Amino acid sequence: MPFPPDAPVPQAAQGRDRLPLQGLALLVVDDSRFTCDALRLILHRAGARLRRAESLEIARLHRAFHRPDLAIVDLGLPDGRGEDLIAELSAEGLPVLGLSGDPEGRDAAMDAGAAGFIEKPIGSAAALVRLIRQLATGAGPLERGQDTAPPPADPLALRDDLVRAAGLITRSGDQHYAQSFLRSLARAAGDSALEAAAQDIRTAFDRAKLARMIEERVTSLGSLA
Questions:
Q1: What domains, with CATH codes, occur in the chain?
Q2: For 75, which DSSP code?
Q3: pLDDT at 25
């Protein structure tokens, strides 16, 4: 699913420099709507245009028609590992940032050819913008801009991801992917209790307990609709 329609990319104030990412086209490959919304808020405000792909397949189809200036690729995707896509894109000369809720993913991303790594949750909006600007344009570091925390992402996007996670956990299928998706989501949302519960799922009882935890959070977020 592409990003929802945005307002026009904001223009820099009259008489000031252009926005730091103005004119850049970025590809975000991530299956989490919550994470993508957080990135959209940061990067759109910096002037970038974004496209989203939820899987390796969609990302590769996108590449057949579009040439982004930089890609951000999550390591855990529903149809394979992001490292494979990182290797493909970096071999074409495209700068790529690896993305994961697991800090140990840094080495895997860099070994695959990533030019940098972003750990969920995103700690500094300004630092991320500076890194993308340097990699995509070769420009020197920005002189102004504080390392502020990113703006809060849409809680309804978090709810949608939690509903999806509940389905993945309770259905038969790739439980390793389901567990990885939920851990990464919980980490991005700052939910340490949910992250801990998703860390070790061994029995049907564990899955049922986790499903109840997710249901409680979905119900709480539903009141925000």
A1: 25-137 (3.40.50.2300), 155-222 (no CATH)
A2: S
A3: 97
Alpha-carbon distance of 130 to 128, in angstroms, equals 5
For residues 14 and 218, give the distance between their C-alpha atoms in angstroms, rounded to a whole number: 44
Residues 73, 85: contact at Cβ < 8 Å? yes
Whether the ω angle into residue 20 lies within 30 degrees of 0, i.e. cis, is no
User: What per-residue confidence (pLDDT) applies to 130?
Assistant: 95
Half-sphere exposure at residue 92, Cβ-oriented, CA atoms within 13 angstroms: 15
CA 11-17-20 angle, to 5 degrees, is 70
Both tokens of residue 180? Answer: 């990885």
- The confidence band for 123, taking pLDDT boundaries of 50, 70 and 90, is confident
Res 152: pLDDT: 74
Contact predicate 54/1, CB 8 Å: yes
State the pairing for strand pair 76-77/70-74. Answer: unpaired
CA distance 169 to 159: 15
Asked if pLDDT for residue 218 goes beyond 60, the answer is yes
SS3 content of the chain, % helix, strand, coil (to 5): 50, 10, 40
Helix (H) or strand (E) holding 97: strand 96-100
Place of tokens 């500076």: 130
The two beta strands, 76-77 and 80-81, are antiparallel
The percentage of the chain sitting over the pLDDT mark of 70, rounded to a whole number, equals 86
